[in-house]
Design brief:
Layout: E1 4-7, E2 22-24, H1 35-38, E3 43-45, H2 53-82, H3 88-119, E4 122-129, H4 140-146, H5 150-164, E5 169-173, H6 190-208, E6 216-218, H7 224-233, H8 270-278, H9 290-299, E7 309-311, H10 319-330, E8 335-338, H11 351-359, E9 362-365, E10 376-378
Parallel strand pairs: 1-2, 1-4, 2-3, 4-5, 6-7, 7-8, 8-9, 9-10
Length: about 425
Amino acid sequence: MVERVLITTALEDTWPEYDTPVLFLGEWCKLYSSKDKWSKFDSMIVPYHWDDRTKLYEDYLYLKKFQEAVLKEIGLKLNDLHDTKKGEKYWEILIAPWLNHFIQIIFDRWVMVNFALKNHDISEANILIVDESDTISFDYADFCIRANTDLWNGVIYGEILREIGSVPIKEIIRDEDIKGSSRVKGRVNLTSKIKGRLKTMINWISSRLSSSDDFFLLATYLPRKYEMALQWSLGQVPKFWFEPEIQLNININSGLGRRLSVDSGKDRGFENFARKLVFKYMPIVYLEGYGSLLKTVKKASWPSAPKAIFTSNSIYANEVFKAWAAEKVCNGSPLIIGQHGGNYGASVINYSEDHEREIADSFLSWGWDDPLKPNIIPMFNLKMVGKKSNWNPKGYLFLVTMSLPRYSYCLLSVPIASQFLNY
C-alpha cells in the first residue's frame, strides 16, 4: 500500500508538494476553482461514510441519545458556573440548537478521520495552529458561519488527529481570523447601530402598550396585517418586538469555563473526545457572556408572564428570545412554534423538526399531523396567508434547487457534504 499524506481541507498551504501521493479526506477538499492544482496529485479520496443511508439513520438515533445525555451534564455544569438553578428544559431551549449541531459535526469529522487511518497508510498530516480565541463563536448564528469554513474545520481535524495520536503531524501556524458574524468582537457598522436604535425605540413603545400577561408574538411568519389582526382577536393592542443587540465587550477567558469538561467515564473514543471539546468551543454568549445576555433580556422589557409565546423562527439564532422564553416556559407559559420551512413532516431525518416538537407545547404544521405527537396541530403555510397564486397550468415549470455547504452541518434527509455533487 502506498503511503499518502492526509489532506483534510481545501486550504492549499496544508498540502504537500505535487510529487507526494495524497489522500483527500473528502470532496470538500477539492474546490472546482483549484482543479488545476489538486488534479496534479497522485491522489485517492476517502468514501463518505454517510453514503450508507442506513448508517446515517442509525447514527442519527445514536447521536440523539448521546446529545440528550451531554445536555443534562452541561446543564449541571453551567448551573454551577453561573450560580443558577435552571432546569433541563431551560438549557434545552437555550443551548440545544448549538450543542446538537456541534456534536453532529464533530462526530462526522471524527468518523471520517478514523476511517481514513484504518483503511489507508498515512505517512503524515498537516494541521493548523491558530489563535484559540479565533475558534470560539459569539453565538449560535456565528457558529453556523464558522463551522462551514475550511479554517475552522482544519482546526477541528487537527484536534482529532492529536487525540488519536497515531500519525506524524506537521503544524502550520495561521494568523488569519476565522470569518464569522459581523457582531463578533464589536465589529458593528453604522447601519447596524441605526437599526439597533430603531428597534430599541419600537421595543420601548411596545412595552408601554403591553401588559405583563400579554400574548407574545415574534417572527411568526404571518404577514404583518394578519399578525395585527390576530393580536386584536386575542384582546390586546397590536405591537411588534425586536431582538435587542447583546452588548458584549469581553475577552475569552480560557480559565473560566473553557477548561471544564463533562464526565466521560471509561470511554476513550468519540464520546470522550466530544465531551472534552464542548466547553472549549461553546459560544461566548453561554459562558463569558451569559451575564451580558441576561442583562439584555432584562432590558428588552418583554412581558413578564405571557399567556403564551408564539414564534416560527426565533428558537435558533435569537439568543435573547431563547433565554427569555426558556425562563417563561419554565414558569408555565406555553410555547407555540409554527413550522417555518419544508422537509418537515415528510423526511425520515430532520433534527430541526425533532427539536421544535420536543420543546413546543403546540407545534403548528403546514397541514400534516402525527398520531404519536399530540402536540402537533395541522394548520396551513403561515407565510402564504392572504397571498394569491397566479400560475398557468400549461406553462413552464421553474424548478428551484438549493445550495448546501461542502461540510456536513446538520443531519437531515438531504444531500450531505460531498453528496451534493450528485444532487
